[in-house]
Design brief:
By secondary structure, the chain is of the alpha/beta class. It is 44% helix and 9% strand. Bound molecules: NADPH dihydro-nicotinamide-adenine-dinucleotide phosphate and (2S)-3,4-dihydro-2H-pyrrole-2-carboxylic acid. NADPH dihydro-nicotinamide-adenine-dinucleotide phosphate binds at residues 5, 10-11, 134-140, 161-164, 167, 181, 194-197, 199, 203, 222-224, 245-248, 301.
């Protein structure tokens, strides 16, 4: 009998304690709240460098030395065009050229080399010959639906191995081939490893003969905590490996994904280009040193869950104060969406500055912000990212040797 599947998914300062009345002073207090929260979250002292950077940022007068615009009944100065250096939306590729089987992506070498910032990708024609997924669960579905929605790949060019019949049906419903793992490797030159972390080493080891027969397969692992060294140890030398930490908003083309590649790999540039192209088609893709990937997991990999909790809590607050549930939910979601959009589009503006612009002196928002601080929201969020990061590190650790009876 199958084991039961787990439930999807998945897996301060007191009010009125300002030291000054100006917005700049308020920003300073924001930084102190951050430092206090940092300590409360049990992650040690607020780092000196971070503290200094944050304080200097918040203490600096704004680049525009003029006082903040007076609140009037005229249209708000917060509309995006009023913010400095708004960044344009990332250009999206219409499709990706995949390398033919058995060769290293000559067609992608013309694409830009990724950097630590979002990399624009050009529109190129589809000549897809095979994208694979080992595991057809939640995350595979999110990536796949995102890529299909952007016409990055055609369903007929996708091969998925998945043992659980209901998930196989979901995959077939997307029009992709459901085959066994070896056939995924034989049919696809780029293969996502999308099984649970503890399954990865044994699954890859079992696919070794197919990988030997299909040299230069690029395995793109999304498994939390599974290191490049573990991947390398589980595959033949001819296979290429990449480690990515995406998140479920792939599904709506708004993922925040970071990836790392093996140092010194001769195909590193091509692989970076291919991974960047795939993930920037469904959101943001940045390359980071592998040492940062566990923190990425704790922040943006796990982060959608924290944000959903926040949205749920916001909606509950609205309901408590008399809003119909559906109205509260729509407003809460749009609030988070719009606020995030402003941070994304004005990356030179510190979020504290955006917050301060909402907080009228003696008004409603500062009362709410003070309640958030008193409730420890900031500490709780920092603690959540740290707990998830620690968990990713634990998962990366080799399993303890079996106990002798
Ligand atoms: N969910 C998320 O938000 C994110 C997840 N990840 C990572 O993605 C990976 C997948 O997570 P998620 O999609 O949530 O998990 P799921 O459990 O939804 O998906 C994994 C799927 O792989 C199947 N599977 C098990 N063994 C094999 C096998 N040998 N061959 C092929 N398929 C197999 C599982 O079937 P069965 O259930 O029957 O075992 C399951 O359907 C994990 O490593 C996770 O760390 C990364 C970023 C975000
Ligand atoms: O919870 C997990 O382990 C996975 C990895 C990141 C998001 N979900």
């Amino acid at each position: 009998m199958r084991r039961p599947r787990r439930d999807r998914r998945c897996a301060a300062s007191p009010p009125g304690h300002r030291r000054g009345r100006s917005r700049v002073a308020g920003q300073c207090e924001g930084a102190m709240w951050a430092a206090t929260a940092y300590r409360r979250a049990g992650v040690g002292r607020f780092p000196r460098a971070a503290s200094a950077a944050t304080l200097s940022q918040v203490l600096q007068p704004r680049r525009d030395p003029a006082p903040p615009p007076a609140r009037t009944s005229t249209p708000s100065p917060l509309v995006a065009p009023a913010l400095p250096t708004a960044v344009a939306p990332y250009p999206r590729p219409s499709s990706v050229v995949f390398p033919p089987r058995g060769s290293l992506a000559p067609s992608v070498s013309a694409l830009p080399t990724p950097t630590a910032t979002p990399t624009p990708t050009p529109a190129v024609a589809v000549t897809m010959s095979g994208l694979g997924f080992l595991g057809g669960g939640m995350m595979a579905e999110a990536i796949l639906r995102g890529l299909l929605a952007k016409s990055i790949v055609k369903p007929a060019d996708v091969y998925v191995s998945e043992p659980y019949p209901p998930r196989q049906e979901v995959m077939r419903g997307l029009g992709v081939h459901v085959v066994d793992g070896a056939d995924v490797i034989r049919s696809a030159s780029t293969v996502f490893v999308a099984v649970k972390p503890d399954v990865v080493p044994s699954l890859l080891a079992s696919l070794s003969p197919a990988l030997v027969d299909s040299p230069s397969t690029l395995l793109v692992s999304i498994a939390a905590g599974v290191t490049l060294a573990t991947l390398r140890g589980a595959v033949p030398p001819s296979a290429r490996v990449a480690r990515v930490m995406p998140n479920t908003p792939c599904l709506v083309g708004a993922t925040a994904a970071a990836f790392s590649l093996e140092a010194g790999s001769p195909s590193a540039d091509d692989d970076a280009t291919l991974v960047t192209t795939l993930f920037s088609a469904v959101g943001l893709a940045v390359q980071v040193p592998e040492t940062q990937l566990d923190a990425v997991t704790g922040l943006s990999g796990s982060g959608p869950a924290y944000v959903y909790t926040f949205i749920e809590a916001l909606a509950d607050g609205g309901v408590l104060n008399g809003l119909p549930r559906a109205t509260a939910r729509r407003l809460a979601a749009q609030l988070v969406y719009g606020s995030a959009k402003m941070v994304v589009e004005a990356e030179d503006v510190h979020p504290a500055e955006l917050r301060n612009r909402v907080e009228s002196p003696g008004g409603t928002t500062i009362a709410g912000s003070a309640a958030l601080e008193a409730g420890g929201l900031r500490s709780a969020v920092i603690g959540a990212v740290s707990a998830a990061t620690r968990r990713a590190k634990e998962m990366a650790a080799p399993p303890p040797p079996p106990r002798k009876e």
